[in-house]
């Protein structure tokens, strides 16, 4: 269960299934109580205020219990997978599943419906480009963001991956913080560094 006590407007919007603009409007008009982060323009909504707002507006609050973003990590490098998983779980805003091959990724994407896939393109069975194509071929998965990672890729291959549907690319080795930042950017949530 998500135990966050304070939410950003983007997170509140996702939980309430409304646009971020709607949440900001309700916040600015006083319908949704919260506070601004001192010295910044960031608005924050305490959990109890968000629940009160949801009840007042007939929005089911069960979404608040599962408000975490789903990340699927597809990589056969167990150490890297563990590292990424640990960092994302510590963040508290993510639910993580992992799989170590392209075939498993295809099945997991359909069952788990992640918000974002961290995809190694050098998988033991099929390459990441094919996984991108499978995801992009299904219109119901348009919202899924894909970050490809690899240690050995030329620039032209990166363009091919983006053409196949990847949203971003990181060269291995990379700083885990850089990956978390990209994940946050693609999911439109604040990165831990600025939160």
Which helices and strands occur, and which strands form pairs?
Layout: E1 6-8, H1 9-16, H2 20-29, E2 35-36, E3 43-46, H3 47-56, H4 62-65, E4 69-74, H5 78-91, E5 94-99, H6 102-112, E6 116-120, H7 128-137, E7 145-150, H8 155-164, E8 168-171, H9 176-187
Parallel strand pairs: 4-5, 4-6, 6-7, 7-8
Antiparallel strand pairs: 1-3, 2-3
Helix pairs in contact: 1-2, 5-9, 6-7
What features would you highlight for this structure?
elongated, alpha/beta, three-stranded antiparallel sheet, five-stranded parallel sheet, 195 residues, 8 strands
Q: Unreliable stretches, pLDDT < 50, 5 or more residues?
A: none
In this structure, how is the largest beta sheet organized? 5 strands, parallel
Terminal CA distance: 21 Å
Helix content: 40-55%
DSSP strand content: 15-25%
Task: Using the alpha-carbon principal axes, give the shape.
Answer: elongated
Give the H and E element order: EHHEEHHEHEHEHEHEH
Query: How are strands sequenced across the largest beta sheet?
Result: 5-4-6-7-8
Contiguous helical run count: 9
The Cα radius of gyration reads 18 Å
Q: State the oligomer.
A: single chain
Number of strands: 8
